[in-house]
């Protein structure tokens, strides 16, 4: 039986996993992305070019050349609790793999049984050779058991656990990449809101100055009460919008504090502005065949597919015979001092072969369920790949359109500023009334906020491209060795 067990141990039930083939897509868009438009004299206005086949750097956020941003990312990587949760889950999966190794070796257990017994009538047999009715019995025993992996159930279990460990690893890498991108985008949003608050406060000052001019003209009889009331209404509306911006800025700063693992009350005030950031001029564009190797979510879906494949083998092996070997060796003695004396020892060897015969279809349907779960994992993998390509394509289009939008926003802001300057000058000389000035002020405020938002979009979508291409984890010295 031992020879048969060793011979069959080379078999493994279930299919051997084959990684899915690389996608057949040749690109992300029907037309290759072109160089983005440039906008002069504004942050985030530089041209961006796409480098086909270039690698995503592991520390891509440093390309924005902001020490404040670098410090935020470093703090988040060190203190973020969601990332630490994912790292702990990876350690759990790794220990599960190590624990499963024990199934390939014999298990050895030792025990000592001590009992005090009384048999007054000697009705129970056996009794000690001295026919004592009251005696103590000491039995130290060593038990060795081993179950050969006849049809690969243990190997498939190890394969499944290793795949689950890989899934946990890529889940951790996905959490890390998402965290870095969220820190960058949230910091950019905070900077944009900070500038919108400053722009709104500047607009309030301009409107207060215009109101003072109108009130002076009203006292001199050169302006009507309607002009003064209209300007007061415009000033009140602008002031009413300021608290909402301040609230959004505070909420964004609080979100940034949580990302870096700090309480909002302990998080130092940030003063980063959009002008403190540099827009990366060269953007990597990985080959489509490389994307499935770089995206953590795709690699996690592949690992889940591998685990589902191994689960089929586990279910198939459960329907096949199981061979067990057991060996016992020990001693029986009436006194502890005589446990290891001659004539008290015993030993035994046993082998058993069991096979399921009738399980009312339970094992059969469990195997079918494992095969269906594999089909489910395969479809999830294909969907994840498609979503990854969509993510990259959407980001490429966004970057091109962001550049066009920024150009238009810069032109609109410059025209609105000129209009406002001329309107204020005409107001001082009585050439226009408050309604004309009010229109110019509204136009400038909207144009200024539009320019800030357009700059913010370029920075945020640039960060989104690095994330969409996988985040560059494979070029990090620590992760590349794993």
Q: What is the fold named in CATH at topology level?
A: Outer membrane efflux proteins (OEP)
- SS elements, strand count: 6
CATH class: Mainly Alpha
Poorly predicted runs of 5 or more residues? none
CATH superfamily: Outer membrane efflux proteins (OEP)
Task: Give the overall silhouette.
Answer: elongated
Strand order in space, largest sheet: 2-3-5-6
Distance between the termini: 41 Å
* Strand/helix succession: HEHHEEHHEHHEEHHH
Structural class estimated from helices and strands: alpha+beta
**Largest sheet composition:** 4 strands, antiparallel
DSSP helix fraction? 55-70%
Mean pLDDT: 89
Which radius of gyration do the C-alpha atoms yield?
A: 37 Å
Question: Could you say how many structural domains there are in total?
Answer: 1
Would you identify the CATH architecture? Up-down Bundle
Count of DSSP H/I helices: 10
Determine the strand fraction and express it as a percent band.
5-15%
């Amino acid at each position: 039986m031992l020879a048969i067990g060793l011979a069959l141990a080379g078999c493994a039930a279930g299919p051997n996993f084959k990684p899915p083939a690389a996608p057949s897509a040749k690109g992300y868009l029907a037309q290759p992305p072109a160089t983005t438009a440039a906008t002069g004299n504004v942050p985030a206005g530089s041209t961006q070019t796409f480098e086909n086949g270039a690698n995503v750097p592991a520390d891509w956020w440093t390309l924005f050349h902001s020490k404040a941003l670098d410090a935020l990312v470093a703090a988040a990587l060190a203190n973020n609790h969601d990332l630490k949760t994912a790292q702990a889950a990876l350690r759990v999966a790794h220990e599960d793999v190590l624990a499963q190794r024990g199934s390939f070796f014999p298990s050895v257990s030792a025990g000592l049984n001590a009992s005090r017994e009384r048999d007054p009538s000697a009705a129970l047999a056996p009794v000690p050779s001295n026919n004592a009715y009251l005696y103590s019995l000491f039995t130290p025993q060593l038990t060795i058991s081993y179950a050969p992996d006849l049809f690969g159930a243990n190997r498939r279990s190890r394969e499944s656990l290793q795949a689950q460990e890989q899934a946990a690893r890529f889940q951790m890498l996905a959490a890390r990449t998402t965290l870095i991108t969220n820190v960058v985008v949230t910091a950019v949003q905070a900077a944009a809101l900070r500038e919108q608050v400053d722009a709104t406060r500047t607009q309030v000052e301009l409107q207060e100055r215009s109101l003072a001019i109108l009130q002076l003209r009203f006292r001199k009889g050169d302006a009507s009460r309607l002009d003064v009331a209209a300007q007061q209404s415009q000033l009140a509306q602008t002031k009413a919008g300021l608290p909402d911006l301040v609230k959004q800025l505070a909420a964004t700063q609080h979100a940034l504090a949580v990302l870096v693992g700090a309480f909002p009350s302990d998080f130092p005030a940030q003063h980063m502005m959009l002008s403190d950031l540099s827009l990366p001029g060269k953007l990597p564009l990985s080959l489509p065949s490389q994307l499935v190797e770089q995206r953590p979510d795709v690699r996690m879906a592949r690992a889940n597919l591998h685990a589902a494949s191994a689960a089929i083998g586990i279910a198939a092996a459960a329907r096949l015979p199981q061979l067990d070997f057991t060996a016992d060796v020990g001693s029986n003695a009436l006194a502890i001092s005589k446990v290891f004396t001659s004539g008290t020892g015993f030993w035994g060897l046993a082998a058993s072969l069991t096979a399921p015969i009738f399980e009312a279809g339970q094992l059969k349907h469990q195997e079918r369920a494992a095969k269906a779960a594999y089909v489910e994992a395969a479809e999830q993998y294909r969907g994840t790949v498609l979503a990854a390509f969509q993510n990259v394509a959407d980001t490429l289009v966004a970057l091109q359109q962001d550049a066009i939008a920024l150009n238009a926003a810069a032109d609109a802001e410059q025209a609105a500023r000129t209009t406002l300057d001329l309107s204020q000058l005409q107001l001082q000389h009585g050439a226009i009334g408050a309604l004309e000035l009010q229109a110019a002020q509204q136009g400038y405020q909207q144009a200024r906020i539009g320019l800030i938002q357009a700059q913010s979009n370029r920075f945020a979508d640039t960060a989104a491209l690095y994330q969409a291409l996988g985040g560059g984890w494979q070029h990090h010295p620590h992760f590349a060795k794993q």
